[in-house]
TrEMBL record:
The large subunit is composed of 2 ATP-grasp domains that are involved in binding the 2 ATP molecules needed for carbamoyl phosphate synthesis. The N-terminal ATP-grasp domain (referred to as the carboxyphosphate synthetic component) catalyzes the ATP-dependent phosphorylation of hydrogencarbonate to carboxyphosphate and the subsequent nucleophilic attack by ammonia to form a carbamate intermediate. The keyword Magnesium applies. Mg(2+) 4 binds at residues 889, 891. GO terms for cellular component: cytoplasm. Mn(2+) 4 binds at residues 889, 891. Pfam families: CPSase_L_D1, CPSase_L_D2, CPSase_L_D3, MGS. It comes from Celeribacter baekdonensis B30. Keywords: Amino-acid biosynthesis, Arginine biosynthesis, ATP-binding, Ligase, Magnesium, Manganese, Metal-binding, Nucleotide-binding, Pyrimidine biosynthesis, Repeat. Residues 133-341, 727-918 form the ATP-grasp domain. InterPro entries: ATP-grasp, CarbamoylP_synth_lsu_oligo_sf, CPAse_ATP-bd, CPSase_dom, CPSase_lsu, CPSase_lsu_oligo, CPSase_preATP-grasp, MGS-like_dom. Binds 4 Mg(2+) or Mn(2+) ions per subunit. Mg(2+) 2 binds at residues 312, 314. This is Carbamoyl phosphate synthase large chain.
């Protein structure tokens, strides 16, 4: 049936901030849905709290609300906008749960808003563990043996977690251990896990009941070691149903599917098993009632007897929908949005072929591999082991003609320094002198490493067995290392349950490696081509042969072994692909030559290098900039070419750029693309400044090859990163920096520290997101840092800066065309200097800086931009202490603040920057004065501490946030309140507030915060020193013991539910350790807590602002 004409406006609820378990895959889906519905002529109203995504750009929807995604706030937007329908299936669990809450509150009925995309009953049947099991029983599809635990409600409307836990302990007898605990209505396995003993079981059941908004958990029998599969299914109202993609987890059950290495299509199912799983998946959608969109059904198969059970299904576009869309070229979210407004699959065209309908089931003749990216190194104390609760922060995807090629390309895409199955150092192994090389046996590699004697061999066997048994981020490399040390596939499978088929393919790669080690680089075209067809990168071949990468590349080129490009066509070459969406491969010549489908055009081209996998310190803000470059330069008549390997983002959508290459961002892969693209047309240049550190590290090598780099030169970027060159510039401009030094040896570092004095900030050079940055307070801590955190050398020096305790940090974003400078935004950090800018809340415009300081910041920004000859974007970090301005660092490139500034001032600064880089001038554009918007915008960081139990939550100079939200309002206090709401911090309206502040913070601002809270009915509970300070300033408080002062203490009060808000600022190693338990309980019991004076004051003002009238909502288009 054609699209509906009885509705004209549709609201889409986004997914909110990027968090582990719900990342930018949902922004990709939501952006697709917005475009699809606007294309059909509907008015689109978007609600999302996340400023970092392209989805919340004003051009994406007709009315864009960057507001907290709470039922109360969304209800106000509904009342104002009066949409005819609400599409809740594009915003992950956040969108779904908010839509259900709005229905429960009667808001949808009151304003006559229809839920489309998924009916209420279907959502509940899929999400409610009990209803889902009953539905599967009706179909005769087996579920794992399980029991459902639901905590009863108390009279006050809260759930009785203790009663639920007691019921869970009773059920243990029936289920047995190990057991898998899955909370209902959550995302990314939040709160769940695998319990191997009673203590684990009790702990995980409690966290699961608390994480589930319905206080409901499913306790499954153990399926550890089973094989896991996903089916991406789309169904319409006419009962057309297609499997878009089958996905197989390379990891056995026990690792969350979001953390698992996965391949598409499924590679180890028999045809009979596949057909059964396909039929069951479609029947699941029919029974649940999903008839207007995409869903994901998860399955487990016992490798011993073939028993197949259904795990769960998502009645919405899921995390893997983005992967399946990129893997096949079939845009699931776009199609789902159109089905939601009445179309059927046979009425919609396939964008890739232009001749087949969307009801034509995609088929692929290549292999896609996804590998997740983790950030355990950011969370000292976190155990780097993978469970059923998701912990990855990003992922890469690679496409190859074979599993071998696809897997090795994916490893090279990771941005962790890998070039393939690189060797891994395992702890407790013998020394190199105790290891010998020997001939292998029939079931091992042909050449293996062994211990020189029985004792050395025992160390090898024990270490490798232990490491194989752990599911760590490096598990694939551990498998490869086990094979190098003589472990057979059977022995490996016995330990970690990996499928023998995958082990055999990895072994084939390693056997080829052994041949290269022994024989050297092949000297024939056929020999070298065979290695490239297995996915070996030039860098890996260089490592195996003792050459450098350039040498291998020359040898390969001389033999005529070059990559060719194939198009994603959705139909295994049955029809020609009209859309230039490509991947590289190596093929044997057929009838004289290898077919390349790149077909470069004769146009003037700009290549944009993306950011690779999302990770902490380099998130979707950079993807946002890349998208803007594509949109604005396409509009200016350039052919835009995107290179990226991240399947979660909008930049890798086939219609974002004119041409898309889904490839690793390595010098080899980028140069192969540029070689082909330069065969025709003109390469105007490459943009390396928008994708964070990933493309920047390629800039010098590309320039050396004669590739034109657009915008700020690589030399200027290097000058800003090189401490000695940069200091010369600062001195020349007469600017100030904190007293600092650069050390290339341990001894130098100790001597410089003596000169600078403590506290100081120390960090390695050339890092992202403050990696390994630390505030060091004494010589003991410095010695510990040098011995354990980094290796100090001439190649990797460390930077030491005097720590400006109590200073206010400032971020400035600017545009420059080489002659003119425009200050696009000045952001005042709410946390003091020393907290990484990515983790600090900030305000635009500044909320308490003196006008003369703001003017001087502009003067210094302009001087730096012109001295560095910036063309494009630039970010500068300053610190202000006692009215003096200190320069912290300069980034003459796009930074993570760009999208926030763009939304806060309503100006497309990334688009303008791209056009400046292509040669236009600032005078060609209408520029916005950021101080004259009439509103405050506050950014708040969202941190993933709940995913890493036991990690201290105190903020420091190393970035750990995964996402951000934005609150905007006429006053700073209201904007800060909205930012807290958006971040999920529920500021209390009554109760007891715990205050304990360091001596430096005992100032009028803290007195004002305390007085404000008392005036609004709160009772202050304080430690002795803070209570004395408050008493001297006329504020009453009750004294409580610190953690080490005896019982009952503050932690006891918090555990008893007596504390509603924690304001706790500390300094010094001992005080930070002493207050760690306070932060841990606050996190676990969801008590709002603030660890800096400025944020504590802002929180008090925000609580006060709530009494000044109802919250107002405003769209970007109305600002």
């Amino acid at each position: 049936m054609p699209k509906r004409t009885d509705i004209s406006s549709i609201m889409i609820i986004g997914a909110g901030p990027i968090i582990i378990g719900q990342a930018c895959e949902f922004d990709y889906s939501g952006a697709q849905a917005c475009k699809a519905l606007k294309e059909e002529g509907y008015r689109v109203i978007l609600v999302n709290s996340n400023p970092a995504t392209i989805m919340t750009d004003p051009d994406m929807a007709d009315a864009t609300y960057i507001e907290p995604i709470t039922p109360e706030v969304v209800a106000k937007i509904i009342e104002k906008e009066r949409p005819d329908a609400l599409l809740p299936t594009m915003g992950g669990q956040t969108g779904l749960n908010t839509a259900l809450a709005l229905a429960d509150l009667g808001v949808l009925d009151k304003f006559n808003v229809e839920l489309i995309g998924a009916k209420r009953e279907a959502i509940e049947m899929a999400e409610d563990r009990k209803l889902f099991r009953e539905a599967m029983d009706r179909l005769g599809i087996e579920n794992p043996k399980a029991t459902i635990i639901a905590a009863p409600k108390k009279d006050n409307g809260k759930y009785d977690i203790a009663a639920g836990l007691a019921e869970a302990m009773d059920a243990l007898e029936d289920i047995g251990l190990p057991a898998i605990i899955r909370p209902a209505f959550t995302l990314g396995g939040t709160g769940g896990g695998v319990a191997y003993n009673r203590d684990d079981y009790e702990l995980i059941c409690r966290s699961g009941l608390e994480a589930s908004p319905m206080a409901q958990i499913l306790v499954d029998e153990s399926l550890l070691g089973w094989k896991e599969y996903e089916m991406e299914v789309v169904r319409d109202t006419a009962d057309n149903a297609i499997i878009v993609c089958s996905i197989e987890n390379v990891d056995p059950m026990g690792v969350h599917t979001g953390d698992s290495v996965t391949v598409a299509p499924a590679l180890t199912l028999t045809d009979k098993e596949y057909q059964l799983m396909r039929t069951h998946s479609i029947n699941v959608l029919r029974e649940i009632g999903v008839e207007t969109g995409g869903s994901n059904v998860q399955w487990a198969v016992n490798p011993v007897d073939g028993r197949m059970v259904v795990i769960e299904m998502n009645p919405r576009v899921s995390r893997s929908s983005a992967l399946a869309s990129k893997a096949t070229g079939f845009p699931i979210a776009k199609i789902a949005a159109k089905l939601a407004v009445g179309y059927t699959l046979d009425e919609l065209d396939n964008d890739i072929t232009k001749v087949t309908p969307a009801s034509f089931e995609p088929t692929i003749d290549y292999v896609v591999t996804k590998i997740p990216r983790f950030a355990f190194e950011k969370f000292p104390g976190a155990v780097p082991e993978l469970t059923t609760a998701m912990k990855s922060v990003g992922e890469v995807m690679a496409i190859g003609r074979t599993f071998h090629e696809s897997m090795q390309k994916a490893l090279a895409s990771m941005e962790t320094g890998l070039s393939g199955f690189d060797e891994i150092d395992l702890p407790d192994m013998p020394t190199p002198a105790q290891i010998i090389e020997a001939d292998g046996k029939a079931d091992t590699l042909s050449r293996i490493f062994l211990g020189v004697d029985a004792a050395a061999q025992q160390m090898i066997d024990k270490t490798i067995t232990r490491e194989l048994a752990r599911a760590t981020p490096d598990r694939l490399r551990v498998i490869a290392q086990a094979m190098r040390f003589g472990f057979t596939d059977e022995e490996i499978k016995e330990i970690n349950s990996f499928d023998p088929w995958f082990l055999a393919r990895i072994r084939e790669i390693l056997e080829a490696e052994a041949g290269v080690r022994k024989e050297g680089l092949p000297v024939t075209e056929a020999g070298l081509r065979k290695l490239k067809m297995l996915g070996f990168t030039d860098a890996r071949l260089a490592a195996l042969t003792g050459r450098d990468e350039a040498n291998v590349r020359r040898a390969r080129r001389n033999l005529g072994v070059n990559a060719v490009f194939k198009r994603i066509d959705t139909c295994a070459a049955e029809f020609e692909a009209q859309t230039p969406y490509m991947y590289s491969t190596y093929e044997s010549p057929m009838m004289g030559e290898v077919e390349c489908e790149a077909r470069p055009s004769d146009r003037k081209k700009v290549v944009i290098l993306g950011g690779g996998p999302n990770r902490i310190g380099q998130g979707i803000e950079f993807d946002y900039c890349c998208c803007h470059a594509c949109y604005s330069l396409t509009e200016q008549g350039y052919e835009t070419i995107m290179i990226n390997c991240n399947p979660e983002t909008v930049s890798t959508d086939y219609d974002t750029s004119d041409r898309l290459y889904f490839e690793p961002l390595t010098f080899e892969h980028v140069m192969e693309i540029l070689r082909v693209e330069q065969d025709n047309g003109t390469l105007h240049g490459v943009i390396v400044q928008f994708g964070g550190q990933t493309p920047l590290k390629l800039a010098n090598a590309l320039e050396a090859e004669g590739i034109p780099i657009l915008g700020t030169t690589p030399d200027a970027i290097d000058l800003a990163e090189d401490r000695e060159r940069f200091q010369d510039l600062v001195t020349r401009l007469g600017l100030k920096q904190p007293h600092n030094g650069i050390a290339s040896t341990d001894a130098q570092a100790l001597a410089i520290a003596e000169d600078i004095g403590f506290p100081l900030v120390i960090r390695p050079s050339y890092v992202l997101g403050g990696r390994a940055m630390e505030i060091v307070r004494d010589m003991d801590q410095l010695n510990r840092y040098i011995s354990s955190a980094v290796v100090v050398s001439g190649d990797s020096p460390v930077l030491l800066d005097h720590y400006l305790s109590g200073a206010t940090e400032i971020d400035v974003d600017a545009l420059c065309d080489g002659t003119e400078v425009h200050v696009a935004g000045i952001m005042q950090h709410i946390e003091e200097a020393g907290v990484h800018s990515g983790d600090s809340a900030c305000s635009l415009p500044p909320y308490s800086l003196k006008p003369e300081i703001i003017e001087e910041l502009k003067v210094q920004t302009k001087a730096l931009a012109l001295a560095l000859n910036v063309v494009g974007l630039m970010n500068i970090q300053f610190a202000v202490k006692d009215d003096e301005i200190f320069l912290i660092e300069v980034n003459p490139r796009a930074s993570r603040t760009v999208p926030f500034v763009a939304k806060a001032v309503n100006s497309p600064i990334a688009s303008i920057a791209a056009r400046l880089m292509a040669g236009e001038k600032l005078s060609d554009f209408t520029l916005v004065d950021p101080s004259k918007t009439g509103r405050f915008a506050v950014k708040e960081a969202v941190l993933p501490f709940a995913r890493f139990p036991g990690v201290d939550t105190i903020l420091g100079p190393e970035m750990r946030s995964t996402g951000e939200v934005m609150g905007t309002d006429a006053t700073f206090a209201r904007a800060f309140l909205k930012a807290q709401m958006g971040a999920g911090t529920d500021l209390p309206s009554e109760g007891k507030v715990f205050m304990s502040v360091k001596n430096y913070d005992k100032k009028p601002k803290m007195v004002e915060a305390a007085q404000t809270l008392v005036e609004h009915g709160f009772e202050i509970i304080a430690t002795r020193g803070t209570a004395k300070f408050l008493h001297e300033n006329g504020v009453a408080s009750t004294v409580v013991n610190k953690v080490y002062e005896g019982r009952p203490n503050i932690v006891d009060m918090m555990k008893n539910g007596e504390i509603a808000l924690v304001l706790n600022t500390t300094e010094g190693t001992q005080a930070i350790d002493d207050s760690r338990e306070i932060r841990k309980v606050a996190l676990y019991d969801k008590i709002p807590y603030f660890t800096t004076a400025a944020a504590s004051h802002a929180a008090a003002m925000a609580i006060k602002s709530r009494t000044e009238g109802e919250i107002e909502v405003c769209s970007l288009q109305d600002m």
